[in-house]
Amino acid sequence: MSKTILVLPGDGIGPEIMAEARKVLDKLNAQHNLGIKVEEDVVGGAAIDADGVPLPDRTLAKARAADAILFGSIGGPKWDNIERSIRPERGLLKLRSELGLFANLRPAILYPQLAGASSLKPEIVAGLDILIVRELTGGIYFGQPRGIRTLENGEREGYNTDIYRESEIRRIAKVAFELAAKRGNKVCSVDKANVMEVTELWKQVVTEVAKDYPAAQLSHMYVDNAAMQLVRAPKQFDVIVTGNLFGDILSDEASMLTGSIGMLPSASLDESGKGMYEPCHGSAPDIAGQGVANPLATILSLAMLFRYSLNLPQVATQIEQAVGKVLDQGLRTADIYSEGTRKVGTKEMGDAVVAAL
Ligand code: NAD
After folding, report:
1. Tens digit of each residue's pLDDT (9 = 90 or more) over 291-316
2. Is pLDDT at 153 greater than 90 in this prediction?
């Protein structure tokens, strides 16, 4: 049966980078006769302008019906001052929760050609290949009760609840072990079990799940140490699995080891492997409309889509190798440019990847 991909370009540089990913998708669709159907709709600020809400019912229905979603980026100053409940980011959060996308996969891979772009010494980061598996729909970002209340003495108090059920920990741990088996088979579970009961349970459950994966090597690390180790000796990690809050912070830290956020893809999966794929960066309003944004994170997100949701790993590898080839040719967008390479715009970069396929 033919597969359907829903494309949501979004705002800012979203439409520019998505146009390049579309070229790659269209080329592969024709080259391998894949018969993939592509739909497109609005989300975020573009949807607020068109429909008054950041995630119209129509877009959500299409997202539910699709086999996978390729998402650009959302947000921008135009929508910064509207009411919080209908801001662009709400569209993204609602998509994630409505589709049950609980597993967020963020690879931090350093292409050897870009080792100089990292803020760390090349010998510390060259060859870096970490996969961070972050729980995305639970933990302190969603836990109840939450709020800001006024105490009897008139002082205000803010509070959130960090909460994880055993089943939520078990399913994300399974994802991490399954993915690790296809790579270095090492899983580091990050917690703060010395002070937080919720992560004490996290540690216990991950240890239990590990018994089903005897070939995997499991280690545990406190989050403060993990933050330190990521900049001290990042190559010690293969797969990192952690909760929503720690994962949010550590994945951003890991992304910067690779130099540019313009290179980093991500995937968010549900229990059946259906997923939404998006670059790690935002809508970059400072460069939107200039034709200079790096489209590679979106193109590499498409590669993840082929690997995880369409089960076509050979097509994913073909895209990744084409990106490597283009970097070998010395082509660089402004964010990864260094002396001795050739600066190109968004469109030229996309065309070069298509040519390299
Ligand atoms: P950002 O990621 O958009 O930009 C940070 C910096 O990185 C900017 O200097 C930008 O020019 C640069 N950059 C980002 N992507 C790039 C690319 N592909 N090529 C070259 N340079 C790139 O983050 P921000 O500035 O904090 O946020 C801007 C807007 O994006 C805000 O409205 C924010 O809410 C939104 N945002 C959306 C998402 C998302 O859609 N998932 C994520 C983060 C932020």
Report:
1. 999 999 999 999 999 999 999 999 99
2. yes
Shortest-distance Cα residue to atom 4 of ligand 1: 284
Distance 80 CA to ligand 1 centre (A): 14
335 C-alpha vs ligand 1 centroid, how far in Å?
12
Angle at which helix 346-356 crosses helix 313-328, to 10 degrees, equals 120
Which listed residue (141, 174, 186, 222) is catalytic?
A: 141
Q: What is the DSSP string of 153-172?
A: TS-EEEE------HHHHHHH
Q: Is 224 a catalytic residue?
A: yes
Q: How far is the CA of 48 from the centre of ligand 1 (A)?
A: 19
**Ramachandran angles phi, psi of 134, nearest 5°:** -110, 135
Q: Of all atoms in ligand 1, which is nearest to the CA of residue 73? A: 40
Angstrom distance (rounded) from CA 248 to CA 312: 28
Domain extents in the chain: 1-102+270-357, 111-132+164-262
Fold of 111-132+164-262: Rossmann fold (3.40.50)
> Residue 198 has what pLDDT?
98
Instruction: Return the ∠ at Cα 99 (arms to 159 and 8), rounded to 5°.
Output: 105
Q: Is the CB of 75 under 6 A from ligand 1?
A: yes
Of 82-86, 88-92, 185-189, 317-321, least confident by mean pLDDT is 82-86
- The pLDDT of residue 188 is above 70: yes
Residue 51 has phi, psi (to 5 degrees) of -125, -5
Closest CA to ligand 1's atom 40: 73
Q: Is 141 designated active site?
A: yes
Query: Could you say which of 23, 62, 192, 274 is catalytic?
Result: 192
CATH of 1-102+270-357 among 3.40.50.1580, 1.25.40.10, 3.40.718.10, 3.40.50.300: 3.40.718.10
Question: Cα dist. 41→10, 47, 49, 101, 337 in Å?
Answer: 9, 9, 13, 20, 33
pLDDT range class, residue 1, cuts 50, 70, 90? low
- Rg, C-alpha atoms of the chain: 20
